[in-house]
Amino acid sequence: MAYEVPALGTAGQVYTAAAHNIIVNDILEFAPLVGVWSTYVPVLTQLGAVTKTVNYASYIVAGKLVIVSVYLDITGTGTGNNAVTVTLPVTAKAQAGITGVFYLLDANVDNYVGTVVGASTTTVAFYRANAGNTPVGVSPNFTFANGDSIRFSVTYEAA
């Protein structure tokens, strides 16, 4: 909605209660589009489910825009030479529209950074920077183990 706010301090113009109510009502009309941060419990897999501690897993929906931020500490083990995936809290409109960044600590070997992409409309996979089209877990071939951790954030359009 369009409205004109009078310039305060200009001779003869007064900021009235009616003008205030118009502005507040317009803001409140769009407030549901902004949403609030919600928590969720992501499922982490490396062939099978991997036990983990969820330090932080939150998302916000603004219209159809979804922003997700996750920090997991690994407490179990995965299965080597298999892609690492994590579930999303809201189904995406398209797998190709899911993008973000990650940091993975393989406590026994190295740290990895790279791109998060949609593995499906409900899960993401992780690809190291400058490592081609093979997901983390396969390249490099490693097994999640107690003491490892992964952090990531993604944005995408909801279905």
Describe the fold and architecture.
- The chain has about 160 residues and is mainly beta.
- The protein folds into two domains: about 1-30; about 40-155, Adenovirus Type 5 Fiber Protein (Receptor Binding Domain), CATH 2.60.90.
- It has one helix and ten strands; from the N terminus they run αββββββββββ.
- It has a ten-stranded antiparallel beta sheet with strand order 1-4-5-10-7-8-9-6-2-3.
- The longest helix is centred in the N-terminal third of the chain and has 18 residues, at about 15-35.
Q: In the CATH hierarchy, what is the class of the largest domain? A: Mainly Beta
End-to-end separation in angstroms reads: 27 Å
**What does the overall shape look like?**
elongated
Helix content: 10-25%
Number of strands: 10
Rg (CA only): 22 Å
| SS summary, helix count | 1
Report the CATH topology name of the largest domain. Adenovirus Type 5 Fiber Protein (Receptor Binding Domain)
Element order, helices and strands?
A: HEEEEEEEEEE
Q: List unreliable stretches of 5+ residues.
A: 1-9
Sheet with most strands: strand arrangement: 1-4-5-10-7-8-9-6-2-3
Structural class: mainly beta
Instruction: Output mean pLDDT.
Output: 85
Strand content: 35-45%
Number of domains: 2
